[in-house]
Amino acid sequence: MAAFREHEAIERGFEKARRYLVPRESTPAERKKALEVLHDLIDELGPVVDWYPSWHPLVGQHDPRSPVRTPSEQCGYKGLDHTVHFAHGFVTCPYHDAEQVISSVASINVPHGASLSAERIDAPLYNSGTQPVIVRCDWETPLELGKLVPKRVAVGLMLDQEIKNWHWTSLGESWETMRGYFLGEPHGARSSLFVSQDTAMAMKRIWLAIIESGVFGPVRH
Asked: Which superkingdom is the protein from (predicted)?
């Protein structure tokens, strides 16, 4: 796997979000406001990402037999439309029923590590007719430098998510298969926009020990 170029990944994510959220048909003033809001969202919520780790509180409430890595009805959300994901939250831009998004977030129970919150924001994102909502992951433990999830929290949430699967699974999955689920996307071999190299390598060591124990059954090849 090629080296993870973090700054390039961050810049690609920003450009993708800018093209998507800053409406071309709006007035110059509206485009300027939308761009300012995008910068504010990144400052608060971290870089734009493609997929969350499967243990992330924003997507953790899914069926373990069918894990999801982006917010959807499968993990409790309703009314999402025209959505951009950041490391610690997302913005969604429905044309109607912003309150449906907010009420669905309020009904999602995150057992450990964080809580979720949502609110309307006054910004011309995606289109001047949308009702943008920002959904935040409010961590109980301060993030590390670079808005990375601390090792104790990331590893703990990964174990919470995965260990219970021994009750029904019959095959273990290799680290190579699970790396994207544990590190999120974009990621490299040893880090991502969610976790540091130290955390990623700790996750790898723990996962290898788990699957080598045979608790999930033989490792799939």
From this structure: Bacteria
